[in-house]
Amino acid sequence: MRYTKEHLELRLSYLLYRMSQLPKGSFGQHHGYRVLYLDSTPENPNMKRKEYGVNSKKAKEYKDGVTEYLQLKDEYDRLLKQWNATYKEPPRRISFPLRKKRPDPIPYEAFEKMVPDQNPCKAKITFKVEGMNVKSKNEAVAVILVGEMSYRMLNEPNLNLKRWFDNHPDIVFEVPEIQKIIVIEVDGSMDDPAEANKAETRRKTYVNAGFREMKDVIFIRLTNTSTGVPLDVDYIRDMIIAAINLCIQDIIF
C-alpha cells in the first residue's frame, strides 16, 4: 500500500484507536502447555497479568481479541518505522470517530449489516476470488487489488439507500482509517455502445443518489479484452488509491 503523509497518519491513529478497544496480551508456553497471557482489557486497563490455558473457557473469550491486537501492533510498529524513516516530526494523533465536512451516502456502520451476493439477476458463470463470487477477469483484478490493501469487502450487497435506489454494486469495501465505505463498479466492454449506455444509466443513478465519483463510487471502465488492449492493472490500483486520498479531503482534522 502506498501511503501519503496524511493517509499514513490516519492509519497509525486508527490502529491505536482500534487497539484501545481490544484486550492486550500474548501467547506463550508454561510448563510445556500453550497459554494466553492477558495483560489488560478495555474494561480493566490496570489489571494484574493473568495466565490461561489456550483451550480454557477464559482463553477462548479473549483469544480472538488478543490475536487481532497482536496483528495490529505488528502493523503499527512497521508503519511507525516507515514514518520515522521518512519524516522528521512525529505523526499527529488523530481522534476517532472522525469528523467530516459532509455526510457519506453510505453510513459507515452499514457495512457490518451488509450481506453479499444479493443480486437477484445471477450471472451464468462466476468464479471464486478472495472468497467472493466474481463475474469477470476485470472484476477479479479489482477484488485482488482491494485484497492486497487488506480492506474488507463484499460483492453485490443490496444498497437500498433510498426508496428508488436499489443497486447491487460489484464491490463494496471498507476503509476503516477514514471511516468510509466505497463502491466499485467495473464496467467492461465499453467499446460496445449498448454496454456503454447501460453503464452511463447506472452512473446517473449513483449521481442522483448523492454519490460523488472518485470518492463515494469508483467507475472502472474497460474495453473488451478480446480487442487486444491489455488490462492495465496499475491504472485500476491508482484509481482506488486516488479515491481514498480524495476522501481524506473530507475529514476535519
What does the model show?
There is one protein chain. The protein has 253 residues and is α+β, with helices and mostly antiparallel strands. The chain folds into two domains: 5-86, no CATH class; 99-252, Trna Endonuclease, Chain: A, domain 1. Helix content is 35%, strand content 22%. The strands form five sheets. Strands 7-10-11-12 form a four-stranded mixed sheet, sandwiched between helices. The protein has a three-stranded antiparallel sheet with strand order 1-2-3, with helices on one face. The mean pLDDT is 92.
Descriptive key words:
alpha+beta; 22% strand; 3-stranded antiparallel sheet; single chain; 4-stranded mixed sheet; Trna Endonuclease, Chain: A, domain 1; 13 strands
What's the short story on this structure?
This protein has 253 residues and is an alpha+beta fold. It has five helices and 13 strands.
In the CATH hierarchy, what is the class of the largest domain?
Answer: Alpha Beta
Query: Could you say what the CATH topology of the largest domain is called?
Result: Trna Endonuclease, Chain: A, domain 1
Query: In total, how many domains does the architecture comprise?
Result: 2
Distance between the termini: 22 Å
Q: Tell how many strands the DSSP assignment holds.
A: 13
Q: Could you say which structural class the secondary elements and strand pairing correspond to? A: alpha+beta
Strand content: 15-25%
**Count of helix runs:** 5
Task: Provide the succession of SSEs.
Answer: HEEEHEEEHEEEEEHEHE
Share in helix: 25-40%
So what's the overall shape?
globular
Largest beta-sheet details:
4 strands, mixed
On the 0 to 100 scale, the average pLDDT is: 92
